[in-house]
What does this fold into?
Amino acid sequence: MQINLPDVVEEVRTAFHDYEDALLRNDIAALDRWFWYSPQTVRYGVAENLLGGEAIRQYRQACAPVHPSRLLQRTVITTFGRDYAVVSTEFTADDSARPGRQMQTWVRLENEWRVVAAHVSLIQQ
It folds into this structure.
């Protein structure tokens, strides 16, 4: 298996940045598109455990937008072959004294990258 093929890393980087941009703009339709709409999709958040694409979609409709000051640090993209990737990042925002971390598993499905699993948490200080 080839790890971190440059063109695949760039594809995932673009998808991740597009997702992050949609998050900062609170573009719910775009955020919904980035997640695989399937009962197997999982998103563990700071205060919620979401199982399935419909639960994630409903959460997006009701949750508060991320603070526009959100800033990413130490983003690591690791790809495995041409269709699987993990993106890990840390973040800060002016609305919280606690830094956060986020991990997403991305899979190419029907020729498009989708998040199939995600975890967001805040670090205890």
